[in-house]
Amino acid sequence: MQGDFHVDGYDIEGLLGAGPAGEVWLAREPASGAQAALKRVRPRDTAAQEEAGRIVSALEPLDHPHLLRIREMLPYEREVVFVLDYAEGGSLGQLLLARPALDPGEVVTVATAMAGALEAVHRRGIVHGDVTPENVLFTADARPLLADAGLLRLVEGGEAGTVGYSDPAGHDGTPPTPAGDVYGLAAVCYTALTGATPETGVGRRPLHQMAPGVPPALAHIVEAGLQARPSQRPAMAQFGAQLAAACPTSPVRFPSGSGGGDSAPFGPNLGPGTESGTDLGSDSGTRGGWDPARGSGTRPRAAGPTPPPDFPSAYGDTGAAPAEAGHAPAAEATDSEDSEDTEDTEGVDEARRSGRRRLLLLAGVPVLLVVVAVSGVLGWRAVREPAADPTPTSTMAAMSPAEARWAKVLDDLDVRRARAWKEWKPALLNQVYTPGSVPMNDDLTRLRKYEQGGVTSVDGLRTPIRSLHVVSQGSDRVVVDAESQLQRYRIQIDGNYYPRDGEPPRRFRITLERSGTDGGWLIAASREIAGTTPAEPSR
């Protein structure tokens, strides 16, 4: 599935993911058998390519336990390839798909490690510029690692950072600052504690309101890092020290299934034939991870929860005996039940029947969500690649500046829309679609339909862009053809999460129009089209 991507000295094993800074591939050195991650980046110009070399030279001497090591940088046509250590444990972003929020001690464990790594990076003259949950990785024993220091600004459109984590005091084209990294790390803490990305300015709900169980001292220091004015934020060293003093650390816990050795590692899927996807663990148990007090722990693992027997899969029946729609099979009674037990059992059975009725109403939800996810709102994070589908040659790493610009616009819109579905806030869709448009009305209709079926959240509703072609471009209207792929997501019903696999790639024609209020871009129309995007991007 590696397409035309080949690097001398490495066997490509599969695509781990794609983001605004480029693609990441899993590779192996044939001589040693050691695995590595190859990050494929297309610098926006010659100056950016020279900056890439400076970053590698500056970070190469660092041997920090919480910094993902860059082994070397290799030229690759008009791109560069960073050879990185492979972090088997996945990202914090993936962990937050399985666990909507972490315990305060776990957040302090991760955040203090990141603060130390960022401080070391700053001392070498490098500003990260994109501190997000996706750039916090874990080793096989759950040790946190900081990734992608300084890389996002190398690509076209990367100056703006990631929505929700970029410095609100910054502006397009202005260099990132260490104070901006403090804001980004504080935003990561806020997300990990609450399950929600912080809003900027007065619209952000205070942390103690979003997560009342957070220790006041911890809430105070996180809020200090989120101050709008950089001068009011603590320095990185002070931020890390105050986090450590605010709450005792605790090992990061990863979801664990009852299958023991049968559970798959919690991390990115490595391609066809592997089982290391980000399946969600049951709430019945967790496995301890890296403990800052002792250094190592249990390999992070996850396994999918066991839904009710008549909960349909995304592709049809799970194999359970069919039941009439809206009704659950009758429960078998035992001769040993007395009258009191019977009353209790009837109450439990009624609750189960109610839950099953809700689940049966949602038989079409996973399929419909595919339509929702790819109705014109595209994202970046790749989780799973279907075995039968090859990766196209025209990828984000090979986009022209114009294509990268519109991919970034679509990504920002997708972040807003994913938040609307996760937090169940229909009003946020006004920041995604043109009012009254067909995609807007479709999303609102589906939200109402799922709410009637008992769904309270749809988490991880994102799609990576595989290719993009600009069809036409005007001052107030742009049309693009984009191929996208729905990633793994999960549905919340009655407090329980049910994971769903992604889908094969699909191609859409998307129309963007300027907003009449703030001049930003909104989705006005989207329709599925046949064929594939051109192998060579438009110039």
Description of the structure:
By secondary structure, this protein is of the alpha+beta class. It folds into 2 domains: 297 residues, Orthogonal Bundle (Transferase(Phosphotransferase), domain 1), CATH 1.10.510; 164 residues, Nuclear Transport Factor 2, Chain: A (Roll), CATH 3.10.450.50. The chain is 28% helix and 18% strand. The chain is built from 11 helices and 18 strands. The chain has a 5-stranded antiparallel sheet, covered by helices on one side. It has a 4-stranded antiparallel sheet with strand order 13-14-17-18. Strand 17 and strand 18 form a beta hairpin. Helix 3 runs antiparallel to helix 4 and helix 6 packs antiparallel against helix 7. It is globular, with a radius of gyration of 23 Å.
